[in-house]
Amino acid sequence: MDLDTVRTFVAAADARQFQEAAAELAVTQQAVSKRIAALERNLGVRLFTRTARGAELTIDGQAFLPHARELLSAAERAAASVRTGRRPLRVDVIASRVAATGLMRGFHRAHPEIELDVLMLFDIETAVAAIRSGSIDASFRAVVAPGRPLPEDIAAVRVLDEPLQLLTGPAHALAGARSVPLARLAGHRIWMPGIVPGTEWAAYYDDLVAEFGLSIEATGPNFGSDALLDTIADTPALATFMGERTRLVWPAGHDLRRIPVTDPAPVYPHSLLWHRDNPHPALAALRAHLAAAAAGRDTAGTWVPGWAIPR
Amino acid sequence: MDLDTVRTFVAAADARQFQEAAAELAVTQQAVSKRIAALERNLGVRLFTRTARGAELTIDGQAFLPHARELLSAAERAAASVRTGRRPLRVDVIASRVAATGLMRGFHRAHPEIELDVLMLFDIETAVAAIRSGSIDASFRAVVAPGRPLPEDIAAVRVLDEPLQLLTGPAHALAGARSVPLARLAGHRIWMPGIVPGTEWAAYYDDLVAEFGLSIEATGPNFGSDALLDTIADTPALATFMGERTRLVWPAGHDLRRIPVTDPAPVYPHSLLWHRDNPHPALAALRAHLAAAAAGRDTAGTWVPGWAIPR
DNA sequence: GTCCGGCCACAACCAGTGGTTGTGGCCGGG
DNA sequence: CCCGGCCACAACCACTGGTTGTGGCCGGAC
């Protein structure tokens, strides 16, 4: 199945005759006839009944038509996604932290007419470079690691503080706790595979460890959240941190516990970064939406790294 | 943009190298290279950065990737829509009556995982023939016109009674009424363009006219609902019938009135028709959904033609 | 530093897809 | 009954899109 053929099918269905469709597509009637015949051969069904005054859709053809239109519009959207100028708003979200994705879903629900593309870049350096080059329009990050101020032309606001919870298996020493003070975690093994040194995410946990004397192991490759959950569920001595907004599904039989952390609650400070000169109209809408969503949230009793931008 | 090229792009993005993608697609590495180069030329952006150990997606490539996947899955759905055996459930709804479409939307909301194709066939003869031949799985109709019983192998249940309302312009004699008894419509001109003689829809209005002494004009071609609304709005002497569930948008400045009809309220008896032997699993789900939706509705004070199937 | 291996790009060549023109059959209306 | 309009089939041709062959580049090992 090829897109030109599908386009021909739609044109013929709309015109209700091959001749006119051919004129519209600037080919001969014979070409249209051959394309439709080829499409019918590929699909294995008759799409038109040929009459002396044109061509009528068969029932199969009527069923196929909306799918054909959808296919063409998907092609149009695909091409638009990389068109320079008036392309969809491109937003980078930090991997492994699902809260930013949730914010973007909320924005999409509030503004379904705004075209969005969501990416996950590697780290904040890449994100900032992409914002400066115009490759992306905005990025959800914890803002810059200590000692590396943002360039002048990049703006940032803190838009969401996501509390971290402890995730344990049923046999863990803290599995029964309703909540646990941060200081009580000293001495427990906390495993966070997949943290890449040098990223702003790693800097966050470095600060957390230094300030509260935790021991976080980032050893081993990240085999994905399934493997992580498997291990946490089966290993009494291990726990991990997980954003409170992260929605996970785990296999039946894994009796995992989410335990809020308090005194203070460590929160991950998601911020939105963008280029001050970016004229994309949807960017203003995104900023307004996030500002409205963040308003009124309380920061008492929470901890963020000293280098997090203020609210 | 052609689908083979897009498939190649996705394979290369997944494999993170052209060579492996080529093996997967059973072509040479050179062919993949040429396809990707052609795609990049068409789109006007670089999709991969070529390295000595493979090919990495650029940011544009990352933005394009989900659209490419969507495009391929749209192609898959399009092909599936005409695949014999295990194709989406195909349901015919009567044109110009929007209530059946509403029922199908409700069904889709309740079962988003069930693939659906909605068609609008010409009349009940066509629909019954299509059901018997297996071209469609079900049809929303008012069931058969008088004197033409359904074939033995077709089953039917009445699933929705849709009250008709009178639609008038602001200068119509009845424009100010909160409701109007059916008998009061005698002598008023009611215009229903587009009724095709011989259809079950025409039979419905024939009976309505005969029983209550109305005068319904079906003259003139149907130029679509926009033209109908224009005329109704501007012509004090004309009114038309419209299903209570029909959602219309009319241009600003048209002050149209919807007036319920009573004593009795004429209702259009939508029924679901299907083939007794149709094994499509989604058909059972549709019947169950409609039965649940129809339960408990009251038929007191309403009128249906004598030939409507009982509830 | 140098060599080697892996991967991608360019060039030349060839087959087959997909277009064109020419023509015939069919159906409906005047 | 003939004419006009529309679609299908046939023959032909160009160019797209594949193949093989080869070269350049980069990174790791020695």
TrEMBL record, chains A, B:
The HTH lysR-type domain sits at: 1-58
- InterPro entries in the record, alphabetically? LysR_HTH_N (IPR000847), LysR_subst-bd (IPR005119), WH-like_DNA-bd_sf (IPR036388), WH_DNA-bd_sf (IPR036390)
GO molecular function annotation: DNA binding; DNA-binding transcription factor activity
Q: Name one GO cellular component term.
A: protein-DNA complex
- One Pfam family name from the record? LysR_substrate
Write out the entry's keywords from A to Z: DNA-binding, Transcription, Transcription regulation
Q: Spell out the PANTHER family in the cross-references.
A: HCA OPERON TRANSCRIPTIONAL ACTIVATOR HCAR, TRANSCRIPTIONAL DUAL REGULATOR HCAR-RELATED
What protein family does this chain belong to? Belongs to the LysR transcriptional regulatory family.
Put simply, this protein is called LysR family transcriptional regulator
* Naturally occurring in which organism (per UniProt): Streptomyces boncukensis
